[in-house]
Amino acid sequence: MTMKLRDGKAGANVLDRSVFKRISAAGLRKSRVTMSADPVTFPVSEAGYLAVIAAVNALSAEKIMPESFRPVILLPPGTEEQTLRNLVDQISRACIAQGLTIEGGHTEVTRAVTRPVVIGTCTGIPIDARNDSETDHSGERCAARGRARIQSPGEIIMTKWAGMEGSCILAIDREEALREVFPGTILMRMRGLLDYLSVKEEALLCAKEGAYYLTDLSEGGIYAALHRLSVKSGRGFRIDLTKIPLLQETIEFANHYDLDPYKMKSMGSLLAVTGDADGLIGKLAEREIPAVKIGELTDNRDKILINGEEIRYLDLPQPDELLKIMEVSINEYAGRKGSGNH
Fold first, then answer.
1. pTM strictly above 0.70
2. Structural fold of domain 150-326
3. Cα angle vertex 264, ends 263, 265, to 5°?
C-alpha cells in the first residue's frame, strides 16, 4: 500500500522514488534543446500569464535560454469562450514580454478538470551550447561544472522579495475583499508585481558571473526553495531569517489572511549560490535588480534557520499557503475577465 500524495507540487522524495527511478530505464535522450513543463492549477484569473513565466523561470534557473512556448489549455464544461480568449491574450502578452515564439498548443474542454488549467512547455538552449560548439547537446558539461564548484561551501543570495507572487495574486483575485481593508494604491502596487515575476534576466546574469547553483522560487515559497537547494547541492545551510526580504504589503496581506509569507508562492525571486556574494549583488544592482545575502551553505546536512537568538531546523516543504484561501467555484472563475491592467 502506497502513501497518499499531499496537495501541491510533489516533493523531491516522491519524485525520486515514484518518477525518476521509474523512467530511468527508458533512458534520457541527449538533445541540444531543453524543455520545462509547468502547470498552473490554482484558481487564478492570470493563469495564462503565470504559466508562461513559470516555465521561463524554471528553464532560466537551469542556465537555459528560453526560446519558445507551447500551451495546453484544459477547460471544464460550461466555460465561457471569453475565459479562453482571456487566457490566450495573457499567454501572448507574456510571450512577447519574454521574447518567446508560440509554437502550437492544444485546447480542450473536458470533465477531467473543474476549473481552467494551463500547462506550459518552454524550450530553450543551454547557455554553453549557444556559445560553445563543443558542449554536449544536453548541457551536461555546464551542469558538471556547477556540481564541481559547489563542492566548496558558497554564499546564498536572494533577489527581490519572498511572497511577491502570492501578494500579486491576492491583489488581483481578492481585490474586492481587500479594498475594504487596504487603500487602492497598495493594491495597485501589488498588482504591478505581475510585470516583475520573471527571473530570466537575473538568472542569466548570475550564470554568466559564475554562480554555482540557481533555483527559482515558486510554489511553497522560500522554505520550499531552500529545501530544493539543499537536496540539489547535497549540503545543509545556515539562513538568517531576518535577512530574507519581504515587502511590507506582503506582511500585511499575510497577517490579514493568517498566512505564513515564507510558505507563500514566490515566483519572481531567485536563489543563487556564489563564492562572491558582494560582487554578484553589485552586478545585479547595476541592472536595478535588488538582491541580498541571506546565508551560506555548510559542510553538513543541517538546514538551520536563525531568527535572532532562536535557532530551528527547516521542516519538509508544506503545501502552499494560498491553498488555504484560493478555492472558488467554476461559475465564479468562469465569470472573471482577468485583471485588465495590461
1. yes
2. Phosphoribosyl-aminoimidazole Synthetase; Chain A, domain 2 (3.90.650)
3. 125
